[in-house]
Design goal:
By secondary structure, the chain is mainly alpha-helical. The protein contains four helices and three strands, in the order αββααβα. Helix 1 packs antiparallel against helix 2, helix 2 runs antiparallel to helix 3 and helix 3 packs antiparallel against helix 4. The longest helix has 39 residues. The radius of gyration is 23 Å and the shape is elongated. The two termini are 40 Å apart.
Length: 209
């Protein structure tokens, strides 16, 4: 099977990206509904309709997983579903879903050009650049939000005694992927420039004849 053009591997990947796009939107809607529902619960707790003790719990773990590893915060008796635990979790989920939507949308545009057999478009370099910037933002946000979670649990966790932050998996692979995308973005930009110069040369020669 050919790599580019209609009926190619690129067209199959494009279909998979469309499915991922839909799944991510469904996940985003579910996250939004969950955040609204939790807001209602907090309002009921504030009004006295729900006992605050119902949100308390024992030891537990916040974990965000992805291929190749996971990033987690484990905690000891902070009060299970209280806002210092749940709000950062919603933020982490929101960043992950929003970043993934941006990446998938850019990949869809990228593989659209691959399907039409025109890989070296100038906008493809822009898509790759947007992807690595988004990945970089997600990685930085991951550490910031985990640090925020630790601070909130220690400050408002209601009895939290110890916070441990564990980075599971090989994060070097994620940062390596970002560096590779930076290089690929420049390769596509240079390829697009050479293609445009070639087309201008052909047009000039045709006009001179």
């Amino acid at each position: 099977m050919k790599a580019l053009g209609k009926g190619s591997i690129a067209s199959i990947v494009r279909i998979g990206l469309q499915i991922a796009w839909i799944v991510l939107w469904v996940a985003g809607v579910c996250l939004l509904i969950g955040a609204i529902a939790y807001g209602v619960v907090l309002a009921l707790v504030a009004s006295g309709a729900i006992d605050p003790a119902q949100l308390s719990g024992g030891e537990g773990q916040i974990r965000t997983s992805e291929s190749g590893g996971s990033f987690s915060v484990t905690y000891d008796e902070p009060g299970g579903a209280t806002w210092p635990v749940v709000v950062p979790a919603f933020l982490i989920g929101g960043v992950a879903i929003a970043g993934s939507l941006i990446i998938v949308w850019r990949l869809k545009q990228l593989f659209e050009s691959f399907t039409t057999g025109e890989p070296f478009r100038r906008e493809n370099a822009q898509h790759l650049r947007a992807i690595w910037i988004t990945m970089l933002a997600i990685e930085v946000s991951r550490y910031v939000l985990m640090g925020l979670t630790s601070f909130l649990l220690l400050r408002f966790g209601g009895g939290a005694r110890e916070i441990s932050i564990n980075i599971d998996g090989d994060r070097i692979a994620a940062w390596g992927s970002i560096l590779i995308l930076i290089v690929l973005a420049e390769v596509f930009r240079e390829g697009a420039r050479l293609k445009e110069e070639q087309e201008l040369t052909i047009c000039w020669r045709s006009a001179s004849l």
